[in-house]
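Summary for the steering committee. One of the milestones for this cycle was to obtain a three-dimensional model of the protein with 2-oxoglutaric acid bound, which we needed before selecting residues for the alanine scan. The sequence and ligand used are listed below.
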Amino acid sequence: MACLSSSQLQKFREDGFLVLEGFLSAEECVAMQQRIGKIVAEMDVPPHCRTEFSTHEEEQLRAQGSTDYFLSSGDKIRFFFEKGVFDEKGLERGPQSWRGDMEISWSLQRNPSTKLAMALARSLGLQMPVVVQSMYIFKQPHIGGEVFPHQDASFLYTEPLGRVLGMWIALEDATLENGCLWFIPGSHTSGVSRRMVRAPAGSAPGTSFLGSEPAWDNSLFVPTPVRRGALVLIHGEVVHKSKQNLSDRSRQVYTFHLMEASGTTWSPENWLQPTAELPFPPLYT
Ligand SMILES: O=C(O)CCC(=O)C(=O)O
């Protein structure tokens, strides 16, 4: 199930997002969870690198104590922690294992869903998609934080716009209670309201914002609960968010972002830059 019908394509173009239930089987979801379990078991994050990642401007800037760890995450697996997991001494807080309270960026090439993603990208008409970033988000029970309203192109800026696409895969049911995605349908057609840019090398903080996020009208957001195995396509400019997970169940997802490289310039001011060792890998192999 990876080819889109014309009505699905039209819906995606109108809304800026599209839910595809049943993209992965339950077994494939479990396999990915086991794989991430191994990566986490081997994780070693020095205390000074224990960074909380946030889409919120003030929190983003506060996180810059470990600027290098964040800015050099493009070609490595990096671990970012939920807000409030550490106390003022940097120690784990509360009974939850710290191992679960983070996002992990890692290369799509290690991911079993690659073939399906390729077929899906082809049916969207992408000619030279490259993988710019991927994340595993645990959204742990009672800890998983709010993801503030944002457009992905604020962080992954291209010229022209409209070249970034998220593929967000639910490895567990994402519900109203555990922090499913919410979208403003049709909000992908008015450009980008703010951009996160790199500061000159060696400056602190390492990034800043141009422009500001408008106060989005909360009543415009529609919830998008999905079952385990669903894939949600996310246009790079559609406004989306997720609420805090106050429930007893985690909401684990694997999400990655593609850029159509044909005729596109990746902004040299983006926080995330390809490296000589690992240029953005092509999706089609
Ligand atoms: O999973 C979430 O809560 C947010 C993910 C997101 O914003 C994204 O993948 O672009």
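Key point for the committee: The domain at 6-42+49-85+97-266 is CATH 2.60.120.620 (Jelly Rolls).
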